[in-house]
Specification:
single chain; about 130 residues; mainly beta; six-stranded antiparallel β-sheet; four-stranded antiparallel β-sheet; globular
Length: about 130
């Protein structure tokens, strides 16, 4: 099972959570959870006017062995309006535009979508059962 918790933060909130959503999916091959502005395909959706988040921005996918990955999906623009970083074990690392990274089995961390133009971010915490 993969559990996601999404919070959106704005500089005006001074660290306060502007909203929080949760989603989960079983660790079955082919299971997918998406994050983005398109309510038709994404389980976790930030505010509609947060255009630095693509319609379908992140995709969490369970592989054939039950291990999850996260992919920053390429959008319609050649250069993204945001940056994405993955933090596991306290060590943040950038996720490349269009890149994929494995999530630790039996572990937790965060994926942060940071607006390049302002102090707004979407923080997606994850926990994958061992």
């Amino acid at each position: 099972m993969l559990e996601l918790t999404m919070a959106f933060l704005s500089g005006a909130d001074e660290g306060a959570t502007a909203g929080m959503l949760m989603a989960d999916a079983p660790s079955a091959p082919g299971s997918v959870l998406r994050v983005g502005r398109d309510r038709g395909v994404c389980r976790l959706v930030p505010p509609d006017d947060w255009l630095f988040v693509s319609r379908t921005h992140l995709e969490f996918r369970c592989g054939p062995d039950g291990t999850w990955t996260v992919t920053w999906l390429r959008g319609s623009h050649p250069e993204p309006a945001s940056e994405v970083r993955l933090t596991v074990g306290g060590a943040p690392s950038p996720l490349a535009y269009g890149g994929t990274a494995p999530l630790p089995r039996g572990g937790s961390g965060d994926v942060v979508i940071q607006d390049r133009a302002g102090p707004r971010s979407v923080n997606v915490g994850f926990y994958q059962e061992g």
